[in-house]
Amino acid sequence: MSGSLLLQSVILGLLLGGLYALLAAGLTLYFGVMRVVMIAHSAFLILAAYLAWWFQRETGLDPLLSLVVTVPLFFVVGFVMQRLLLARLRPATLTMMSVLLTFAIALTIEGLLGYVFSGTQRRIQLDYSGSSLEVFGANIAVVKLIAFGLAAVALLGLWALMKLTRFGQALRATIQHPEAARLLGINTDRIAGFGFGLGLATAAIGGTALSLDSTIYPSLHWHWIGPLMAIIVIGGLGSIPGAAIAAMLLGVSQSLLQVPLGTTWAQTVFYIALFATLMVRPQGFFGGRLAQRF
Amino acid sequence: MASDAPAPEYLLELKDVEAGYGRAALVLRGLTVQVPPSSIVCLVGPNGAGKSTVLKVASGMLTPRSGSIRVNGVDVTRNGPQDMIRSGLSHVLQGHSVFKEMTVAENVGLGAYTVRDKALIAERTDFVKTLFPVVADRWTALAGALSGGQQKQVEFARSLMVSPQVVLLDEPSMGLDPKTTSKVFEQVVRMRDAGIAVLLVEQNARRALETADIGCVLDLGKVHITGPASELLADPQLAELYLGGRPAAVPTT
After folding, report:
1. pLDDT digit string (tens) for chain A, length 294 residues
2. Looking at the domain assignment, is residue A198 inside a domain?
3. Is residue A160 part of a domain?
């Protein structure tokens, strides 16, 4: 592998890792707030990508502008979904039942996308779709940089929200000790709903970023959920920094392995890392001290 | 302290309370507990007597099926946790309930979640820092990194941020060694001396009664005996039944 190819792979891996990190942060939020395994996260990701594509096709405006609508929309949908569906699951079997429930939601979204937009593969064509930057001989597509920037800004915003605001403190308190939080007067039910809304908002941002340089089709979400689940287990369930670190590492590994192995086999890195984690350190590599921290 | 309206005799009064979980049998069967101002009232009794349930009812986590709860003479029977805080109650859970991955400062700050007045929050922060020096010393540390006894003090400090009239303490000595337990009980006395009434539930009955002003012996969801804690401690029959053996030495006062 030549030096510039190596550099290119690492950069592309980091850019992809940023998107993984944002989406994994969302998954981690659902799990932290209410021990929910949200299979439909990536279906919402693809839904947001479709909305961005549709918005661009209908209005001719930049797909990034669709965020103005999709982020608040997804936040509200997440809140309503948590309040009306997930909060009604029996606490004793919540985690397991949440898999079934969100699996059904994922299938519903996939079916609706197929029905409304057909199974045809779609791709956004932009003026800047083809442009790229050259960094030390490595070619980096501008759209990938924009997608990464979007993910990074969103993650930073999420961090600031969790760390610096009263709501973020209440959310972290609810994750760490729900009963104590309730006794301090925190409305933990509502906070959990907002937490879910935030998680889904990451899917909206991620989907828009994804739409910039990916070909999308209704069943694409199945390619995403596996790696994302692997990332949050490796990072330590409930740990947002853990998920971000795991996302970056695996993004780079995947990108590097693509050169000798091809795209399909490179994806197996997630599952190999998952198996290794479960054998060596089932609590995840950052699940100890970093867990639940932001 | 003379005012026109007579001050209610009790800051917190649970009267003939019946309560239970779901459709299961009642845990509290006509329980009456009264907490006068500036006193430590201690509930003792065997496992399953309903001690923790009393606190859950008082803090609005569990709604009683019948009976009444009054804080400062005002009926608050149907209030949820948020309203109970506003009416002057604060509840410290058993075991460790600090937010471990947050700093001591953040923990204490969250104690004032329902308080909007910035000046009042600053005033309360100074108050709890003075009352619990360890809180001030470890202000920027992660709460989970503190020892068990220190975490308890952070929990106490957190519960005092809302300027409660009565603090409900559920088994503050749970999981602590005897030396740390003594230290924690010292802090409970300091809370009382600062003018806060305490309703205390303890497994470690003898130790708790030594600290308390008033003792209530609870069994099968009812208070069987209420009296000055020192008298309960001195009663050989009670000691036999609930305090694990005869009193070691009866104080002659």
Report:
1. 677 888 888 999 999 999 999 999 999 888 888 788 999 999 999 999 999 999 999 998 999 999 999 999 999 999 999 999 999 988 888 888 999 999 999 999 999 999 999 988 999 888 888 788 887 777 888 899 999 999 999 999 998 999 899 999 999 999 889 999 999 999 999 999 999 999 999 999 999 999 998 899 999 999 999 999 999 888 887 778 888 899 999 999 999 998 888 888 888 999 999 989 888 887 777 754 444 444
2. yes
3. yes
Considering its fold, how many domains does chain A have in total?
A: 1
Q: Sort out which chain A residues have CB atoms less than 8 A from B113's CB and list them.
A: 166, 170, 184-186
Across B73-86, average pLDDT? 88
Parent domain of A167:
19-221
Residues A47-96: pLDDT tens digits? 999 999 999 999 989 999 999 999 999 999 999 999 999 999 888 888 88
pLDDT score at B244: 64
Residue A249 resides in a domain: no
Residue A266 lies in a domain: no
Q: Place B246 in a pLDDT band, splitting at 50, 70 and 90.
A: low
Strand order in the sheet with B166-170: B89-92, B166-170, B197-201, B40-44, B214-219, B222-228
**Tokens read off for B119:** 């000046």
Is the distance from CB of B113 to CB of A185 less than 8 angstroms? yes
For chain B, how many residues are written?
253
Question: Distance, in angstroms, between B158 CA and closest chain A CA?
Answer: 9
Say what the pTM is.
0.86
Q: Which residues of chain B make contact with A238, given a CB cutoff of 8 A?
A: none
Distance CA A48, CA A25 (A): 17
Contacts of A173 in chain B (CB under 8 A): 99, 102, 110
Q: Which residue of B has its CA nearest to A185?
A: B82
Nearest to B114 among A179, A180, A185 (CB): A185
For all residues of chain B together, what is the average pLDDT?
A: 88
Nearest to B159 by CA among B180, B190, B128, B183: B128
Torsion of the alpha carbons at A198, A122, A254 and A106, rounded to the nearest 10: 50
Q: What is residue B155's predicted lDDT score, i.e. its pLDDT?
A: 95
Nearest CA in chain A to B87: A185
User: B111 vs chain A: nearest CA distance in angstroms?
Assistant: 6
The token pair at B8 is 């209610």
B197 to A12, A14, A139, B12, B81: CA distances (angstroms): 63, 58, 70, 9, 18
d(CA B164, CA B112): 11
Contact at CB, A180 and B109, closer than 8 angstroms: no
Whether B141 and chain A come into contact, CB under 8 Å, resolves to no
Q: Which residues pair with A38 in a beta bridge?
A: none
